[in-house]
Amino acid sequence: MSSFQANIELAVSEHGPLCLGIDPSEKELHNWELPDSATGAKEFALRCIEAAEGRIGIVKPQVAFFERFGSSGFLALEEVLQAARDLGLLVISDAKRGDIGSTMLGYAQAWFGDDSPLRVDALTVSPYLGPSSTVEILDHARDIGGGIFLLAATSNPEATELQTSKTGKATVSATVIELAQKIGLGDCGVVIGATQDLDQFGIAHIRTTDVGIPILAPGYGAQGAKLAGLKDQFGASSSRVIPNMSRALTMAGPESVAKLIDKAKLEL
Amino acid sequence: MSSFQANIELAVSEHGPLCLGIDPSEKELHNWELPDSATGAKEFALRCIEAAEGRIGIVKPQVAFFERFGSSGFLALEEVLQAARDLGLLVISDAKRGDIGSTMLGYAQAWFGDDSPLRVDALTVSPYLGPSSTVEILDHARDIGGGIFLLAATSNPEATELQTSKTGKATVSATVIELAQKIGLGDCGVVIGATQDLDQFGIAHIRTTDVGIPILAPGYGAQGAKLAGLKDQFGASSSRVIPNMSRALTMAGPESVAKLIDKAKLEL
Q: In chain B, N or C: fewer CB atoms in 10 Å?
């Protein structure tokens, strides 16, 4: 079994680093003239995966947009995950889970269980309950060749309020990156929004020194960051970045996704 | 339609403040000699709810322990929520969700949607993406007479690492409590672990001045805090506290839950 880090490297070498975010929100389903239901969400996601085939190595379904339909939304997600696995796509589940240790085991069983229908390659994880509280779920991920992405500097405007707080001299963001480097051996990545000012978050050092771990970077496209600016934003760590685009690739409808993926890849 | 605050006050006046945590973990299902499956989790939760009837006004299912079975786990949870609603129990879904605004709308639709099968009275919410990023989901909760609980000082040992960080002069915990007081009108509560040193988290003021908002307090029982110590821990805010007990009430098996609830209520 190869490691998550090795799987990412393989996917990137074959298809480049671009990640397709799969966000079947009410608005997107309306754009695609699909019903606002679990069936509509599944149809949306399967069409995204078809467009990704042969073009993209990594996809990121946003769990909230399936959870909104309850159990039928999760059933749709399970079918989407199976379709992605069948095509050999790496899947990052964007769920931002985080809880105390005994509860985190439940989330580990959900997303990294050997026979779990929700099994994925990686999960986004919130370090709010203590960065060190996330070590155990990383171990479970690794057991199946998976990994996690800790939220270090998220892409939303309100992120600074908490993530620039200081623990000792370092910001929360810097502390999270340091922990990921220490525990991860490359299987623990971080989420850093492409829209954010790294200086403000106290993490500008990743621009001058290679961070050595995967960086999942949302914020491209609809949230305002440009793929052409990736190297300026991440400097010495640029080769680690998995830029995610969601709405910008899907908002023009199902027929345009493949074309917009090809166009976006040219900007990288 | 009455407000969440009014519903809590009614439940507490009828049954006292004790909340029964429903945690169908692998270990608990094993204790109860139930299969480690969605069916086992449902059976466990329904037996808990039966024991709660007439004794307890508030229950708190831990979503992770249903999520670990994927869509069939969520289907089980939906049936459990329906059973709780049928008995007039207030339900706090312990899911600790938190994301950027457009995604948070997905979680709002899941847990506070008018016709959602996962509809509950309240949801625990993580403020990691910025305390102010949680205002919108509170609005959705209120639309159906519900509320949210923001994680202010969680009950796990690693909680201090991040939640005692400083934003300006105040700790993250204090900032979260202040926000909840400002936006909530009593429908936005906070989670404060009964096991934690309030001084260390920079929130000892809630012991001398009534905080005025609901406090969901995990940590009683298996995690070490005693119900008899509630007034010492929370002082002037004691009347706001909803103490949660999970494993301590369920670990002795299904026949003992009702008896252990009665015993716990005597300690309050």
A: N
A interface mutation test: which of B77, B161, B192 has the most A CBs within 10 A? B161
B102, B160, B250: best to mutate for the A interface, most A CBs within 10 A: B102
User: What pTM, to 2 d.p., does this model score?
Assistant: 0.98
Contact A161 B155 (CB under 8 A): no
Q: Is A96 a catalytic residue?
A: yes
Instruction: Answer whether A99 touches B (CB < 8 Å).
Output: yes
Structure-block tokens of residue B256: 């003992």
pLDDT number for residue B222:
85
Write out residues in chain B with pLDDT < 50, as ranges: none
B166 close contact with A: CB closer than 8 A: yes
Rounded Cα gap, residues B197 and B213, in angstroms: 19
* Residue carrying structure tokens 């779990």: A116
d(CA B93, CA B95): 6
Measured CA to CA, the distance from residue A186 to residue A213 in angstroms comes to 5
Rg (CA), chain A: 17
Q: Strand order of the sheet with strand A166-167?
A: A170-171, A166-167, B166-167, B170-171
Spell out which residues of chain A touch residue B165, defining contact as CB-CB under 8 Å.
162, 165-167, 172
Find the helix or strand (DSSP H, E) in which B132 lies. none
Is A196 within 8 Å of chain B by CB?
no
CB contact under 8 A, B162 and A110: no
As beta bridge partners, residue A244 has A19
- The tokens describing B199, both together, are 């001084």
pLDDT at A184 (0 to 100): 81
- Nearest Cα to Cα of residue A168 among B160, B156, B166: B166
Q: How large a percentage of chain A has pLDDT more than 90? A: 95
The answer to whether the CB of A189 falls within 8 A of the CB of A218 is no
pLDDT of amino acid A223: 87
What type of residue is B240?
A: R
Residue A116: per-residue pLDDT: 98
Residues in chain A predicted with pLDDT less than 50, given as ranges, are: none
Q: Domains in chain B and their CATH numbers?
A: 4-260 (3.20.20.70)
Residue whose C-alpha is closest to residue B214's, from B245, B230, B237, B236: B237
Is the Cα torsion angle A167, A173, A176, A178 positive or negative in sign? Answer: negative
Tokens representing A50 are 């078809």
